[in-house]
Amino acid sequence: MTYSIDPIGRIHSPYKEKFSVPRQPRLAPAANARVELLGEANSPEAVRGLEQFSHVWLLFLFDQNLEAGWKPTVRPPRLGGNERIGVFASRSTFRPNGIGMSAVEVKGITQQGNQTWIELGSVDLVDGTPIIDIKPYIPYSDSIIEASGGFAESEPDVLPVVFSTSAQLNLKAHPNGQHIQTVIEQVLAQDPRPAYKKNKTDNKEYATHLFDLNVKFKVESKDSGHNLEINRNFIHVTSIEHF
C-alpha cells in the first residue's frame, strides 16, 4: 500500500543550498527561520495555542535527495565519513521515505494579510524545504535525561572564524550586516566541508550561498601568514559578495 503526503508548509531560512547547512538544529543560534503555512493549513486556527510551547518538532522532506534513492548503510560525518553503519542508526538525509525531523524553538506566530507564519529559532533546513507536519515538543516525555547518544554523544568541535578586510567592509555596508556576520561565524565554525577533510587544511577556496550573499572561505592554519593568535586551524572568510 502506498500513501501520498501533501506539504503543509515551506521553510524560509538563510541556507540557499545544502552546503553549509548545520548538521543538526541549534548549532547556529542566530540563524532564525520561519514556516510559511500552505493550503488549508494556512489558517490562524491551525496554530491556535501553539504559542504556549517553546519548541516544536518539524517533520519535513529531504526533497533535494529523493531522486537519489537510499542504501541500507551510510557513512556518518561524525565518524569521519569512513565507517559504515545502518541508515536507521544515523540521521542521513538519504532515507527510504526521505523524511526528517528537527526540534526547533518557536519565537512567535505572525499574520501578514492572509498569510500565517510560524517564527522559528535556528534550523538545519535548506530554504524552501517542504514541511509535512508540526507537533509541539513536550519536555516531560520528549526530553530523556538518561538517554545515550552513541557515536554522537558530544557536541561537534568548532573552528575560529576570521574575516578579511574586504569581507568586513562588505558586511558593514549591508543593512543587516552585524546579524549576518554572526550567522556566518556560527555556520562556518562547524566546518561545512566533507567529513574526510575535518582537521585538515587545503588550498581550496569554498563558497556558500547564505541570505543574499556568496560567502567564500578557506580553512587555514596559524602559520599561513596571517599573524593570528590562533593555535589551531581556522576559517578564513576571504570575500563576501552580493548575488
What does this protein look like?
- It is a single chain.
- The protein has 243 residues and is mainly beta.
- It folds into 2 domains: 9-151, YaeB-like (Elongation Factor Tu (Ef-tu), domain 3); 161-242, YaeB-like fold (2-Layer Sandwich).
- The protein is built from 3 helices and 12 strands.
- The chain has helices spanning 139-142, 165-173, 177-188; strands at 9-12, 33-37, 55-61, 73-74, 85-86, 99-112, 115-120, 130-136, 161-163, 206-210, 213-220, 234-242.
- The chain has a 6-stranded antiparallel β-barrel with strand order 1-2-7-6-3-8. A 4-stranded mixed beta sheet has the order 9-12-11-10.
- Helix 2 (165-173) packs across helix 3 (177-188).
- The longest helix has 12 residues, at 177-188.
- The radius of gyration is 19 Å and the shape is globular.
- The model has no long low-confidence stretch (mean pLDDT 92).
